[in-house]
Amino acid sequence: MEKYLGVDIGSVTTKMVLMDRQGRILWQSYRKTAGQPIRVLQQTLLALRKDMGEVNVLGVGATGSGRKLVDYIVGADLVKNEITAHAVSAIHTHPDVRTIIEIGGQDSKLIIIKDGVVVDFSMNTVCAAGTGSFLEHQAGRLGLAIEELGGHALRSKSPVRIAGRCTVFAESDMVHKQQMGHNLEDIIAGLSDALVRNYLNNLARGKDILEPIVFQGGVAANAGIKDAFERELKKDILVPGHFRVMGALGAAMLATGTRRTRFKGFSLASQELFTTSFYCSDCPNSCGVIEVSTGSEVIARWGDTCGKWGEAVS
Does pTM surpass 0.90? Predict the structure, then answer.
């Protein structure tokens, strides 16, 4: 089986996709990173080998905030930012897409496409009020599973107005609305509306949101958020079938041009890896260097500006 691997490691979730040359997903995984990206990466590779057997990986693409980790540890052939990866996968699934809304665990993105090319984008990594982590926190506070929020929001008859410009204000406003006696469905619908307003105010100001609009990322599973976007924009929103792993899919697609892969194989998944760090004192930059080893051998280093320590490994 000659296939391509795409890995998208974020601060909250780790996504992996195995696809064929035509872009068809053969296997996928969506797991919580849980602050242990290396361990979760190993567990995911083990699950892939268990489910799919011996696979001849011809190329590996990496994206997400942990893409350098994938590059150094797994052996990525191509490392790209999330904007590029999400755009490639969205264009693959919806060739006429004009706008991509992507909301992940701790950041959100808006990508504008024209004639199959990214012409503009904006990204919010500062305000957590428009992200999946905020929604998950509020679901827990309300005693609900994150998967239940969308259904409750759709049953609302009169959404309350929640201040969504800041996580602190939003949470205190939700508590206040509960104390006033508003029902749960209306509060959750108000929260969905607040998240959408926050997203549009931060990312869409001055931009034309044209159809077709594709909504991807983990938050796209929330039907209440999708409904809030449609009401606010007065436009239809499309959710791809593989919305959770679109970044990983895009990374895999970008790796199809690989001639000779750097993939280190699946054996690394079963090795015990150790992570340490140190500060280099060779120049005033004082770079913090991350080092990964098997105990007896250093297999990866990164974090140095000049590349000195990384080059020493390779």
Answer: no
Helix or strand (DSSP H, E) at 28: strand 25-32
Residue 65 C-alpha from the chain's centroid:
8
Architecture in CATH of 2-84+249-269: 2-Layer Sandwich (3.30)
Report the phi/psi class of residue 121: left, alpha or beta, with left for phi > 0 and alpha for psi in -120 to 50.
Answer: beta
Burial zone of 126 (CB within 10 Å; 0-12 exposed, 13-18 middle, 19+ buried): exposed
95 within 8 A of 88, measured Cβ to Cβ: no
Distance CA 120, CA 123 (A): 11
User: Among candidates 233, 255, 290, which has minimal Cα distance to 69?
Assistant: 290
Helix (H), strand (E) at residue 78: strand 78-79
pLDDT in tens, 98-126: 999 998 877 889 999 999 999 999 987 55
**Domain extent listing, the chain:** 2-84+249-269, 95-239, 274-313
Helix (H) / strand (E) containing 311: helix 308-313
Same fold, 2-84+249-269 and 95-239: yes
Q: What is the pLDDT of residues 236-251, one digit of tens each?
A: 999 999 999 999 999 9
Contact partners, residue 35, CB within 8 Å, separation at least 6? none
For the chain, the straight-line distance linking the first and the last C-alpha, in angstroms and rounded, comes to 29
User: For 48-77, what is each residue's pLDDT tens digit?
Assistant: 999 998 899 999 999 998 898 888 888 999
Tokens of 159: 């959404």
The third-level CATH classification (topology) of the domain covering 95-239 is Nucleotidyltransferase; domain 5 (3.30.420)
CB atoms inside a 10 Å sphere around CB 237: 19
Average pLDDT on 255-276 reads 88
Task: Please tell me the distance from the alpha carbon of residue 159 to that of residue 142, in angstroms, as a whole number.
Answer: 16
